[in-house]
């Protein structure tokens, strides 16, 4: 065992926002243009259920807005930056991944015409997957994996877009694997399409080829 493994092989490190993989620009949101109160994590966790539900409903409504002008896109991006600062906290991630927000994030990933919005939606999804410790069997993880796989396949020659979607896909796959290893839910709950493995292997092959090239 000492010959086969090194200690670093047994340490799990984040895939998303890992500076050893790719250096991310720190996200900063503007509370003045957020259109909702920029509550702190402590404030959100101390809220009564009715206040939390109203807050969440407002977030979902803003994300689900069909307005397509520049101002609306900027507001949506600002909201996504704010969400990125929230979901790195385990308690918030646990609440949000099982809420109505997750299906709306998937819908935005599918329908948004602005690629910055799509990239940051993927970032929120990846951070949610990384920081959550609870995953209900009704969370549509398989749908998110399928969509991310399609986006990577459709934009395979665009390395910038691939770097946006691959970390989120990796975090979702690791989340499912870790939950199934603990036997928390039957395997059918979070079926992983074979296309996801195919795309990942293709990315790995291309990456190795570029490295040696």
UniProtKB/TrEMBL annotation:
SUPFAM superfamilies in UniProt: ARM repeat
GO molecular function, one term: kinase activity
The entry's keywords: Kinase, Transferase
Highest rank taxon of the organism: Eukaryota
InterPro entries for this protein: ARM-like (IPR011989), ARM-type_fold (IPR016024), ULK4 (IPR045906)
Record keyword Cell cycle present: no
Entry annotated with the keyword Transferase: yes
Signal sequence, start to end: none
Stored Gene3D superfamilies: Leucine-rich Repeat Variant
Protein name (database record): ULK4 kinase
UniProt gene name: Ulk4_0
């Amino acid at each position: 065992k000492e010959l086969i493994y090194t200690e670093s092989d047994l340490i799990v490190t984040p895939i998303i926002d890992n500076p050893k993989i790719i250096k991310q620009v720190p996200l900063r949101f503007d509370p003045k243009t957020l259109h909702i109160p920029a509550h702190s994590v402590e404030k959100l966790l101390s809220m009564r259920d009715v206040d939390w539900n109203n807050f969440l409903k407002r977030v979902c409504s803003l994300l689900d807005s069909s307005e397509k002008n520049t101002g609306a896109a900027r507001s949506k991006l600002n909201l996504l930056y704010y969400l990125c600062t929230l979901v790195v906290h385990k308690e918030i991630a646990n609440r949000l991944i099982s809420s109505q927000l997750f299906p709306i994030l998937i819908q935005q990933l599918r329908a948004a015409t602005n690629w910055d919005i799509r990239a940051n939606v993927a970032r929120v999804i990846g951070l949610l997957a990384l920081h959550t410790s609870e995953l209900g069997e009704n969370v549509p993880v398989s749908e998110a994996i399928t969509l991310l796989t399609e986006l990577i396949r459709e934009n395979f020659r665009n390395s910038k877009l691939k770097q946006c979607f691959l970390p989120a896909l990796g975090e979702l796959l690791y989340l499912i694997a870790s939950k199934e290893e603990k036997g928390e839910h039957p395997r059918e709950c979070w079926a992983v399409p074979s296309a996801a493995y195919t795309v990942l292997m293709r990315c790995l092959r291309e990456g190795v080829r570029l490295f040696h090239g």
